[in-house]
Each structure stands twice: as C-alpha cells, then as structure tokens.
Amino acid sequence: MPFAVGSAIREFTYPKRARKFVVVSAAQAWEEQDRSPFVRELAGQAFARASGAPLVLGNRVRLLRDAGENYPRWLESIASAQRTIHFENYIVYDDSTGQLFADALIERARHGVQVRLIYDWLGCLGKGSRRYWRRLREAGVDVRCFNPPRLDSPFGWMSRDHRKMISVDGETAFVMGLCVG
Q1: Using the 8-state DSSP alphabet, how is residue 84 labeled?
Q2: Where is 107: in which H helix or E strand?
Q3: If you ran DSSP here, which 8-state letter would residue 111 be given?
Q4: 40: enclosing H helix or E strand
Q5: What is the DSSP letter of 127?
Q6: Considering only Cβ atoms within 10 Å of each terminal Cβ, which end of the chain, N or C, has fewer?
Q7: Angle at 165 between CA 177 and CA 172, to 5 degrees
Q8: How far is Cα 97 from Cα 31, in angstroms, rounded to an integer?
Q9: Would you write out the chain's pLDDT as a tens digit for each of its 181 residues?
Q10: Which residue segments constitute the domains of the chain, with CATH numbers given?
Q11: Three-class SS state of 21
Q12: How far is CA 181 from the centre of its chain?
C-alpha cells in the first residue's frame, strides 16, 4: 500500500510481490487531489493519520515558505478579523517587526475584536520587554505568559510552549515554524 513521506515522489518495486509503491508527500498529494482518485484517497489517509481527523473537503492549504511570505499574510488576516484573533508564539521580539504585530493586534482590539496572545516565558526572555506586553494589555489584548517560573515548582519552567499559530475568526489559521521578529 502506498504511504506518504518526504517531499519527493519515489517508486519502489518489491521483488517478491512485484508491486510498485509510490511515495509522495501529503502536501504534494493535496495539490494533485483533483487529478486522481488514488491521490485524493492517499491525501485523505495521510491527513487523517497526521491529525487524527478525517480530511474535510472545501478547505485550502497553501505553503508559505519564509517570513517574507508569511508576515504580510498574517498581518492581512489580523486586519480582516471581525470576531476573534488567537495568536500563540514561542518568541515575540520587541523590535520593528514585533511592533508591527503589536500595532495590528491593538488596532483590532480597539475595534471590538477579542484578541488573545500567548507567548513563552523562556522564549521571550530578553526579547520582549515589559513595556511591550503592558502596551498590548492596556489596549485590550488578553496577553498570557506560558509557564513563568514559580517558587512552588522550581523545575516547572522547563516545560515550554513551542507552538506557533494564528487563528482568525475561527476560519483562517496559520500553523508555522516562524517566530515574530
């Protein structure tokens, strides 16, 4: 049976059974889903295995490769938010890029959008200032720090939040490997 791994198509022939196996990436299978029922079924199986949920038709997946492609799309989505923004990131720098995101989140919060932001305490240590977080909170953004050190749990801080995601209005989501800054 074919299975999905890696990023290239490879063909394998097993001598005992003389059957050909084609290996494709899940993203590649998704791109080619309308071309072949086999590939459509393969994509469904790959996504179901990866997520633990069946593939739901009508959704789109687009690969954004770097900050140059990601940041503008994130900011566009944030600017279009009508109800909610959930923003979770391991590191948010208090630099010009971080300020762009803070401005965008503050603008939406002031227009009645529920904005929630969670950052990792250790990830942002020395990168985001108290002034940066205070500015967001004072503008109505619900800012939470993940797992800051506590006296009652001296090694509790070792658990980190490496997730990086943005959800806008429960309809648009970005799951990424990029931090902000």
Answers
A1: E
A2: helix 96-110
A3: T
A4: helix 37-51
A5: T
A6: N
A7: 120
A8: 32
A9: 333 334 333 333 334 444 444 444 555 555 555 556 777 777 778 877 887 777 677 777 788 888 899 999 999 999 999 999 999 998 898 999 999 999 999 999 999 999 999 988 767 778 878 899 999 999 999 999 887 777 787 777 677 777 789 999 999 999 888 889 8
A10: 3-51 (no CATH), 67-175 (3.30.870.10)
A11: strand
A12: 16
Residue 31's nearest CA partner among 61, 65, 52 is 61
* H-helix segments, 111-156: 121-124, 130-138
Spatial strand order of the sheet with 84-89 comes to 142-146, 114-120, 84-89, 165-168, 172-175
Residue 162 phi/psi, 5-degree rounding, is: -90, 5
Residue whose token pair is 């494709």: 24
The Cα–Cα gap between 55 and 43 comes to: 8
Task: Quote the tokens at residue 152.
Answer: 């009652």
